[in-house]
Amino acid sequence: MTTDRRKHSRVNTSNLISYVCIDPSGNETTQGMGRAINVSQEGILIETHKPIESKYIRLMLVGIEDELIQVKGNIVYCLPDQSKMFRTGIQFFETKEKILSFVINLVKIFSKQPSPTKGDGIYDNVVQ
């Protein structure tokens, strides 16, 4: 049995999130969209269609009150999964206040999303 050695617990989520890759000089190189899988006070796991091949990243989301919320992080790993998507672990490097604002808004946005129901298009391709 493996034990989780993380200091902070992770919260499962399924939010769309924008990202911009940053080179060591601070220049933006590529951008894209992904889906947040889970988040904690120290980092986030996102899923993307393409691998993220940068060391640094800026994540962005629109908050409950339509404000742009951003946080920077280091790419810890980027690995393919069984569905040919890529899962990227990111460690935040910002002030505690900025990280908490990002995490709280991400969780609030997710909790406001309606639960998927049959017939709304989400389950159309699921075989019962």
Overview of this structure, please?
This protein is mainly beta. It has one domain (11-112): Thrombin, subunit H (Beta Barrel). The chain is built from 1 helix and 7 strands; from the N terminus they run E-E-E-E-E-E-E-H. It has a 6-stranded antiparallel β-barrel with strand order 2-3-4-7-6-5. Strand 2 and strand 3 (28-39) form a beta hairpin. The radius of gyration is 15 Å and the shape is globular. The chain starts with 10 loop residues before the first strand and ends in a 16-residue tail after the last helix.
Describe the secondary-structure layout:
Layout: E1 11-12, E2 16-22, E3 28-39, E4 43-48, E5 56-62, E6 68-80, E7 86-92, H1 96-112
Antiparallel strand pairs: 1-3, 2-3, 2-5, 3-4, 4-7, 5-6, 6-7
Order of helices and strands: EEEEEEEH
Largest sheet: 6 strands, antiparallel, barrel
| Strands, total number | 7
Low-confidence stretches: 115-128
Please work out how many helical segments DSSP would assign.
Answer: 1
Question: What key attributes describe this structure?
Answer:
six-stranded antiparallel beta barrel, 42% strand, 1 helix, Thrombin, subunit H, 128 residues
